[in-house]
Amino acid sequence: MKIQIELTSAEEERIVIYCKEVTDEIKRIKQALEHRDKTLLGFLEDKSVVLKPEEILYFEAVDKKVFAYTKDCCYRMNQSLELLEELYEGLGFFRCSKAMIVNLQFISHFQSLMGNRIIATLENGEEVIVSRHYAKILRQRL
């Protein structure tokens, strides 16, 4: 893929992608560019906290509630995992199990397990299990 930047005198900046076909990679790049400035609203006790997607290690659903985990804290979210997956897949988030979405940017290494599962170790030392179904998708994506 060739990347080129050109200066222009146009009032509004724009990004144009030329491609032979719209592949999954092109879709992810487009989505990442469209959502680069998006923020999330998380809740910590009685406070509302603005979170940037790049701060989040993973999202997890527990007892029909969704939480966002950062290096320092855990925040309750109002969005469903399905919506979060749809919105942030292009930013490096990956559905690794029925109840979890992990930010691939924070994974330091992988280890294969019996039963076709994967352990993903995050930069902070936490380990996340990638289920059989999603392990196959992850291998193809990587």
Topology:
Blueprint: H1 24-34, E1 40-44, E2 47-51, E3 58-62, E4 65-69, E5 74-77, H2 81-88, E6 93-97, E7 100-103, E8 107-112, E9 118-122, E10 127-130, H3 132-141
Antiparallel strand pairs: 1-2, 1-5, 3-4, 3-7, 4-5, 6-7, 8-9, 9-10
Q: What does this entry look like structurally?
A:
The chain is α+β, with helices and mostly antiparallel strands and 142 residues long. It has a domain at 24-101: OB fold (Dihydrolipoamide Acetyltransferase, E2P), CATH 2.40.50. 20% of the residues lie in helices and 34% in strands. Strand 3 (58-62) and strand 4 (65-69) form a beta hairpin. The mean pLDDT is 88.
Measured between the Cα atoms of the first and last residue, the distance is: 17 Å
> How are helices and strands ordered from N to C?
HEEEEEHEEEEEH
Task: Kindly provide the radius of gyration, computed on alpha-carbon positions and rounded to a whole number of angstroms.
Answer: 17 Å
Principal-axes shape call: globular
The neighbouring-strand order within the major sheet is 2-1-5-4-3-7-6
Question: Given the helix and strand composition, which structural class is it?
Answer: alpha+beta
Q: Beta-strand level of the residues, as a percent range?
A: 25-35%
